[in-house]
Amino acid sequence: MRTRGTLRLATRGSTLARRQATLVQEALEERRYEVELVTVETTGDQIRDELIHQLGKTGAFVRELDERVLDGDLDAAIHSMKDMPTEQPADLVTAAVPERGRPGDVLVTPDGATLEDLPSGAIVGTSSLRRRAQLLSERPDLEVEPLRGNVDTRLEKLLAPALQAEHQERSEADKERKGNTGNEDFEPEYDRTVDEWFDDLSELEKGALGREVETEYDAIVLAGAGLERSGLAHYVDYQELSTSTFVPAPGQGALAVTAPDGETAREIQTHIDHPRSRVETTVERTILSELGGGCIAPVGIYAIVQGEYVHTNVSVFDRDGEESVTASRDLPVETHADAARSFARDLADRGAADLIEQARKEAGDDGTASEEDKPAGK
């Protein structure tokens, strides 16, 4: 049991970030730690109307949290690993990688349609360059449009058109019902009034009714872990997308706890680090670092420990999903970091470096980049 005071952990303030931080808090409290979550607003949180890849700086959702830790105000910070730049401040370490959540993406539709079911010209929402390229690679006939906001905001934008149309129809039916009061031959279109229908809606659906519709999406793509951790998965219909075709972003579904190198970091690692998740995400982030893709190029990297090897899939696309370099390799667990660097160099030689450089020129990038599509709820 700790003899020092409460462990104070930095977290972003979004609903999802707080939910994810609570997972870490509960894991530590089970080990008899006293834990306080401290909300820190980040640069990324302050920019709500730009696409993530236009933020222009790496770590827009990370930096301020780590600075509070380095300043000594807080003991550690909790991040979505997908948000973290591959280069960390020298005085900080990744103290723990808790057990990873669902790594892949999901396609959410209002009616349960799958990617294969979507008609030609269907509009799919995502602000991730990777997801956009992967969607267009599989379905070049789709229209992929930007989508930002919290998970609930994104879902509301998807559900809003159909719900608002139904609300209008039911309101008109109510007027007709009232106009036929006393008419025994009148048969109402709906069994329930619009108010009764509204009362049975979920909070998510009620939010969608009041949302202004700018783009009518036929589907949206989200991180599966974000949808699940938001508590909204059971309110919508979704399809899990294959991690072989829709290779996830490096670190997707994983959390990371950063802390100054020292006793606190070692204690946190001892109690909540998940070795398998750490190995897998180390492989993914090592390859990303070697390739230098950041979010300026559509890069998917997914590693999974299988016995003595780490099976690793990598896909690097151009921004329109027309060109790609894809490969899989089994890396020895014992030398996973070195093997990942070697794999990345081979990928670069096979053309991945050219695609990333092409994407950098198209973006007018100055060598810095922000994270991919931030996890839902942010």
TrEMBL record:
Family indicated by similarity: Belongs to the HMBS family.
Residues covered by the Porphobilinogen deaminase N-terminal domain: 7-160, 214-262
Keywords on record: Porphyrin biosynthesis, Transferase
Gene Ontology annotations of biological process type: heme biosynthetic process
Compositionally biased residues, Basic and acidic residues: 166-179
An annotated GO cellular component: cytoplasm
Broad class of enzyme this protein falls into: transferase
Porphobilinogen deaminase C-terminal domain ranges (all copies): 280-327
InterPro entries the record matches: HemC, Porphobilin_deaminase_cofac_BS, Porphobilin_deaminase_N, Porphobilinogen_deaminase_C, Porphobilinogen_deaminase_C_sf
Region feature Disordered, mapped onto this chain: 161-189, 357-378
This enzyme's EC code(s): 2.5.1.61
Protein name per UniProt: Hydroxymethylbilane synthase
Any GO MF annotation of the entry: hydroxymethylbilane synthase activity
Cofactor(s) essential for the protein: dipyrromethane
